[in-house]
């Protein structure tokens, strides 16, 4: 009873804090253009860091107070415990740096450099999502089979990095470039679920350290989307692809620095086989179905914004720097 009461109080406090700040969101968005003309970018970087830090603090407060503290002592060797949080944070920063380039700015590259019309842009983005949808469960099964998720993350990010670099150096065909962007983004995105699983294993389930580590992902997104958008305004949208390849290479390097979690001694093969046959039962679970439906609807509300938001902002006359700040 006391545990439930504490959890409810934390949730109510969180909801009240969110509602109290929702009234300022509209003003922040409407004034972003004017502020960007009066303040240097470093001010917005500082605000981005403060916002990410506050989000991490809220996540920590919502953790169950009576949960036993977790540490990395049981998951990684003593030699890898040093700077484990910083090494995980570096991966999140670089990975969401890729997302900060791809999500707001890739549609601009597809429109202005690849010369795709809106229907073709939508088809390219749908192809990217379908590839990720097919790849994620297959790679999860592969990770269970080879019992080396860290090695698989390194392989995926390296392949994405090499593919993104090769599409700049080796091909001039717009069609080939678009498909290589789709495939490299699929490979890079497929590494995130495996990295999240490793983070939970290294930091410990329910560890308050996760919020502080994950904060660097939000910070990486905001910084890269701001600076790369400004660079695209000054040099042209062709530079977006170079930044995308560069951050994929940095992500591969950060993946090599991730600590190696221990592999449970239980038989993974038997569990994986059983889980495959339990999928229909899972899909028939009403709670799971509700959660999946909610997630699908949430993504659907973002689809038009992710695909064509930056194009609409650009058509309205906003500069790349302003578009980055709005994101």
Description:
Helices cover 82% and strands 0% of the residues. With 327 residues, the chain is mainly alpha-helical. The longest helix is centred in the N-terminal third of the chain and has 37 residues, at 2-38. It starts with a helix and ends with a helix.
Give the biggest beta sheet: none
Question: What is the average of the pLDDT values?
Answer: 75
Helix-and-strand structural type: mainly alpha
Number of DSSP strand runs:
0
Low-confidence stretches: 1-50, 62-75, 265-274
| Overall helicity | over 70%
Shape: globular
Indicate the radius of gyration in whole angstroms: 21 Å
Oligomer: single chain
End-to-end Cα distance? 42 Å
DSSP summary: helix tally: 14
Order of helices and strands: HHHHHHHHHHHHHH
Q: Can I get a quick summary?
A:
The protein is built from 14 helices and no strands.
Supply database-style keywords.
327 residues; mainly alpha; 82% helix
